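Page 37, top half.
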Amino acid sequence: MAQARTLSDQELEQVLAYAASTKHGLRNQTILLMTHWAGMRIGEVAAVRYGDVLASDGTIRSEVKLSATQTKGSKSRVVLLSERMQGAIAKYIAQYPCVDLKKPLFKTLRADGFTPNTLTHIVSGLYKQAGYDGATSHSGRRGFLTRLSEKGVSVRVMMQLAGHSQMSTTQRYIDTRPDMLRNAVELI
């Protein structure tokens, strides 16, 4: 099976613009950003609760502590949120305020929260409708690690940010794009 397509910054902006035009635009944008800017798995995004992102004073946490039940492989992990990601979550929560810290951050019309499978279909559909065939719910996570690699972040650091236990797993996520190759040879 082919790996999920990674998007350039410009392509991501186009997908986010498309997501904004959908019925639940801000929700869809925030879901996409949690995969692209925080490197979260789609199952983790589906499992995140208001209490995971909101501190007791109502501010957005800089770290999301996911329990073993919220992650792949039944291992708890910490997801670091950049200031940019914290801002996106704050904007979302301003539109969809917390009524119960135990409730899922992203709720559906019929149920409390999305299943990972449903969220996978929604995200893949957003990419497809925006014109990006080959992009899937895993594209954001791959893009997150690829961008970090482009900026010179060590694989060891990326491994911890991704919650991987094997460096080889992290390395498989990193995409090499023509501009990366060109920039590498220009270092000589």
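Page 37, bottom half:
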Amino acid sequence: MTKTLLDKKIALLLSGGVDSTTLIQYYKDQGANISAYFINYNQDSIESENISVEKIVKYFNIPLRKISLGYKIKKNNFEYTMRNSLFINIVASTIEEDVDIIAMGIHNGTDYYDCSKKFISTMQDILDGYFKGKVNIDVPFIDWYKNDIFRYARTKDIPIEMTYSCEKQSFTPCGNCPSCIDRKGRV
């Protein structure tokens, strides 16, 4: 018998940004059981992301698991090398046995390989090798652009003001990184 989303347990990668926060509401609307995972990879905006994540899980009343890598991932311009593959592997190696889905707020409009359908397919093949098809990656926004996510967030009254998206620093967004540019005029 196929499980409905009401029966599914979701391990959601939460960054504190708009995409992953909106993803919580997406799954809540379908009655899914959500646990958030926040990964500290010593990113430049760790303090603000951490504050946002704490506010978001409290607002949505979902459990949070924080994982610290203890080192900084290599960054080339604004792209962190292998970040999403590392995140999927970390969560997959720490999830409870009954987790059905690892969810990410990946969306259309970015040129990073680890935000592509090919990447998701490759990572799913890896998970299938370990979990025999029982754990799936879900990226429901993969065909959505940032405007689509903001539009959805507004229709659902998601508290966007709780989110933080700057890639360069904490507390005061730089205004120039790709995430700040994506956010301009939308909040």
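Margin note: Helices lie at 18-28, 46-60, 83-94, 117-131, 146-155, 178-183.
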